[in-house]
Design brief:
six-stranded mixed β-sheet; 6 strands; 60s Ribosomal Protein L30, Chain: A; alpha+beta; 2 helices
């Protein structure tokens, strides 16, 4: 049992398994906090190829599945943090990101980092509200 009252760990087979000692997401009260998602195909466990656009699509698809498992959705995201290995990829990332967040996009921070797990080009984490039933 969690020492934090109301804390629930979120699990789903539709997103990659954690590659370390962390949860894909944690739900508490009306909020969901996701771990950073990278471009791993949950069906194969392998990284997707195809450059920053393909990676970003897979990352956001994984994020969508984690949020849905928590009772939320991309439409309920209030904040994302994007970690990029190369800020030169920002315009391409932005174009794909806009496909997933089409209306009233969440607040966002984008940070350039030296490296990411498994040498991916992008990782995205989110905070979202629980969807009302």
């Amino acid at each position: 049992m969690s020492p934090v009252k109301g804390k629930k760990v979120v699990k789903t087979d539709k997103a990659p398994r954690a590659i370390g000692p962390y949860s894909a997401a944690v739900r508490i009260d009306s909020l969901v906090f996701t771990a950073g998602q990278i471009a791993i195909d949950p069906a194969t466990g392998e990284l997707v190829g195809g450059g920053i656009e393909a990676e970003t699509r897979q990352v956001l698809t994984n994020l969508k599945h984690v949020l849905e498992a928590a009772g939320s959705s991309l439409e309920h995201v209030v904040k994302t943090t994007v970690f990029l290995a190369d800020m030169a990829d920002f315009p391409k990332l932005n174009a794909v990101y806009a496909e997933f967040f089409t209306e009233d996009p969440p607040a966002r921070s984008t940070v350039a980092v030296k490296t990411l797990p498994k040498d991916v080009r992008v990782e995205i984490e989110a905070i979202a509200l629980i969807a009302e039933s």
